[in-house]
UniProtKB/TrEMBL annotation:
<comment type="similarity">
    <text>Belongs to the alpha-IPM synthase/homocitrate synthase family. LeuA type 1 subfamily.</text>
</comment>
<feature type="domain" description="Pyruvate carboxyltransferase">
    <location>
        <begin position="6"/>
        <end position="268"/>
    </location>
</feature>
<dbReference type="InterPro" id="IPR050073">
    <property type="entry name" value="2-IPM_HCS-like"/>
</dbReference>
<keyword id="KW-0432">Leucine biosynthesis</keyword>
<keyword id="KW-0464">Manganese</keyword>
<dbReference type="GO" id="GO:0003852">
    <property type="term" value="F:2-isopropylmalate synthase activity"/>
</dbReference>
<dbReference type="GO" id="GO:0046872">
    <property type="term" value="F:metal ion binding"/>
</dbReference>
<dbReference type="Pfam" id="PF22617">
    <property type="entry name" value="HCS_D2"/>
</dbReference>
<dbReference type="InterPro" id="IPR054691">
    <property type="entry name" value="LeuA/HCS_post-cat"/>
</dbReference>
<keyword id="KW-0100">Branched-chain amino acid biosynthesis</keyword>
<dbReference type="InterPro" id="IPR005671">
    <property type="entry name" value="LeuA_bact_synth"/>
</dbReference>
<dbReference type="InterPro" id="IPR000891">
    <property type="entry name" value="PYR_CT"/>
</dbReference>
<keyword id="KW-0479">Metal-binding</keyword>
<dbReference type="Pfam" id="PF00682">
    <property type="entry name" value="HMGL-like"/>
</dbReference>
<comment type="pathway">
    <text>Amino-acid biosynthesis; L-leucine biosynthesis; L-leucine from 3-methyl-2-oxobutanoate: step 1/4.</text>
</comment>
<keyword id="KW-0028">Amino-acid biosynthesis</keyword>
<dbReference type="InterPro" id="IPR002034">
    <property type="entry name" value="AIPM/Hcit_synth_CS"/>
</dbReference>
Amino acid sequence: MGVKRVIVFDTTLRDGEQTPGVNFNSRDKLEIAYQLAKLGVDVIEAGFPAASNGDFEAVKNIADYVKGVTIAAMGRAVKEDIDRASSALKNAEKSRLHVFIATSDIHLQYKLKMTRDEVLKKAVEMVKYARGKFDEIEFSAEDASRTDWDFLVKVFSEVIDAGAHIINVPDTVGYAMPREYGELIRYIRNNVPNIDGVIISAHCHNDLGLAVANSLSAIENGATQVEVTVNGIGERAGNAAMEEVIMALNTRKDYFGLVHGINTKEIYNTSKLVSELTGIKLQPNKAIVGANAFRHQSGIHQHGVINNRLTYEIMRPEDIGVVPDTFALGKLSGRNAFELKVRQLGYNLSPGEISEAFRKFKDLADRKKTIVEEDIRFVVEETIEEFRSFREGEAWA
Ligand SMILES: [Zn+2]
């Protein structure tokens, strides 16, 4: 057996669109879908065609134009939703229905007002109804993490018999703990008798800040598909963030030993596009794609990184497609170019400080081939600090 591959299912356009205040138009959705295909996701969940005509059109557009990737559409376990999904996906290169029904007692009792037997029957009936209308059928047991494990096993085994290719185990309300969720995935893998050849999928929400941890735990325990969104957007506190799951798998390849189809160099572009089109700015300390994710503040850290990045960096900005800004500044740069760059970075130095910072910069440029923004900040901040302590010294003298 070769190296195991994780299937990346992106639901930025479906669960991500359930972010409060976010409403993509059809053109935004198409633009994001093209970028997701470029990023290398395996499946794009394009929307929920039965929800509105707009959503139907958006899914159809993506299925018509975005190729080289599976296009999924969501629907409830009712014929109308399945029919709408099927006609929206008609021209998809590879189509997937994502059909769901809740399985937890709390949802059965208060939302569906159905018994377990009724839910089981409905699930099987609708998977059978969908069979042949799509290339693949994914069945989701909504609120799986709060469902009785043995009932879940029973539902999964019967929908697999009915024709489901992928079974999804959502932590719909972000309630599970990493070890517990991993154990659930393992329980399903070990107890669903016809699980061989079926993809087990993790879908985690971030209500307790554990969506990524839970997704990784699921992967460790046998999940072969992970459902993610760009920047972690989604219903309430959001979903597992694509960039965090992927960079964890990459940075700790030694630990997971898994491969995936994502071109990490497209992560930054994708994140920026989604942030622009949703109007949702990232917190500066957001892992991987936040503005501060690769900035070092402490002087000790800066010294370390300038000497060798491995001292304090476990990833390189280039890995996610951030082009290191070299400013075309090097040892041949003059004082004016340097001064301009310093101002562009937001510093306002006295002539004395500029002279000193420039001297330090020349010194550094002699030792280092490429000068990046971080280097400039470093010499400038060191200079400011020296001048301040000098002034303080004078005041005390
Ligand atoms: Zn969800």
